[in-house]
Amino acid sequence: MPRLKYATFLRVLVILGLFCVWLQIMVSSGLERDGEELMNGNDTSEQVLALVPQELHKYLTVHPKNNTANTTDLPKNITEIRRAIKRYNDAQTIYNEDIYGPVLNDTVIIAIQVHTRLTYLRHLIVSLAQARDIERTLLVFSHDYYDEEINSLVRTIDFTKVMQIFYPFSIQTHPNEFPGVDPNDCPRDAKFEQAIKLKCNNALHPDLHGHYREAKYTQTKHHWWWKANRIFNQLQSTASHTGMVVFLEEDHYVAEDFLHVLNLMRTTADKTCPQCELLSLGTYLKTYQYHATADKVEITPWHSSIHNMGMVFNRTVWNSIMSLQDQFCEYDDYNWDYSLLHLSQNRKGKEKFKVMMCKGPRVFHIGECGLHHKKSNCNANLVISKVQKLLQTTKRLLYPKRLTASINPGGAKHNKKLVKGNGGWGDRRDQEMCTNMTKIERQLKKYTYFA
C-alpha cells in the first residue's frame, strides 16, 4: 500500500511538472507575440512625462486612429505605398530649411534608422529636441516601413532641419516576392537534399549553418547599407558633404550635450589619434560611473558589438568602406555591424578600424523589445525613466571643457579575428542586391507638391 501511494504521488508530481512546463511555454509564446504591441502601447507614465519639458509633450501625444476627418490615416495598398515612397525619395524635401538654413558641407547629419517602434521613436525625438545646437544639424529619418502615424510625427519636428528617406525594397512593399518572402523560397530549416528536390529558390546556397533565408533578418543589413549609400552617394543636398554623420536607431536616446561632446571628440582625435576613423557616442553598460567617466574617452580597436551605437564617421571613411564593398556584401552574416567588422579585419595593408569611444555615454539604448530582444516586460517607460533620471542627476557633469583620452589595446575577445559570420546571408540574391545598391546613380532633385 505505501508503495502504491508513493507511485500515485510521483504521477501527480510528473503531471504537475508537465503542466507547469506547458504553461511556461504558452506564456512565453504569448509574450513574444505580444511584445511589440506592449512596447508600442500608448501609455506614457506620469514619471516619464514629469521629466519632459511641457512644450515637448506634443511629441509624446498619441492621436486617435481612424479619424474620418483625416483621410491620411486610412491604410494604403501596396501600390499606393510604393508610389508614395518614390515621390518622397525623388523629391528629397528638407523640412524647416527655410527656418534653419541650407545644409552645409560640415553640417552634422544624424541618420536615424526607423522600423515600427513608435514609442521609442517619440522619446528619441524628445531627447534630440533637448540637445544643445540641434538646430544646426540635419535629421535624416530612414524608414523601412511606411506608416502615416510615424510620418506625421516626424513632420511635426520643428527644432531643426528634417528629411525622410524610404528604403524601397522592404518586406512591406514586396510581401510575396524577393526581397520579401517569395512563395517558392526554401523553408529555413529545409535540409539541402530536400531543398534540391523542392527546386526552391537558392536551394544550392544555404548559409554556413545550413539554413535558408529569412527576410525579416536580412532586411536590417540591406536597410543600413542602402541608407549609408543614399546619404553619401545619392542625395543632392549631401553631394559635397565632408562633415560627420551620426548613425542612430529608433530605440536610442541622446544626452543633451551629445553634440558638444562629439565636437570635443573630433578635436581630441585630430590631436591625439589621427588614425581614429570612427567615433562612438554610446556604450553598452548596465551601470554608468558618470562621476569618473563623463569627460573620458578611450582609444581602442573597433568592435561591432561594443561600438555600433551612436557610431560616427565621415565621407573619407565611407569611401574606405566602399572600396571593400564586396567583402561587406558577400560576408555570410545578416548583421551590418559584424559585416563591417569583417571588412575592418581584412583591409590589406591597413590595421583594423580604430575608434574613440565615449566612456561616459551620450547615446543610450532604451529598446527592451524588438528583432533581437524578447523580454517579458516590454514597457519602454521603465528604461526611459532610468536614463532620464541618470542624466538629471549627473547634469553638472555634462558639457566638459576638455576630454581625457586613454589607450586600450582591448582584450583577447575584443581583438579576436572573425573566422566565420553568424549566417543568414547565404542567399545569392541578397549578396547581389547589396552590391547593386552602390551602383544607383545620384538622383536629381525633383520638386513635388504633396497635398
For the record, the CATH class is Alpha Beta
The sequence of SSEs as H and E is: HHHEHEHEHEHHEEHEHEHEHHHEEHEHH
- How many DSSP E strands? 12
For the record, the count of structural domains works out to 1
Question: What class do helices, strands and sheet pairing give?
Answer: alpha/beta
Corresponding CATH architecture? Alpha-Beta Complex
Q: What number is the mean pLDDT? A: 86
Distance between the termini: 84 Å
User: Helix segment count?
Assistant: 17
Q: Report the radius of gyration as a whole number of Å.
A: 24 Å
Brief rundown of the structure:
The protein is of the alpha/beta class.
Can you characterise this structure?
The protein is α/β, with parallel strands linked by helices. It has one domain (40-439): Spore Coat Polysaccharide Biosynthesis Protein SpsA, Chain A, CATH 3.90.550. The protein contains 17 helices and twelve strands. The longest helix is centred in the N-terminal third of the chain and has 38 residues, at 2-39.
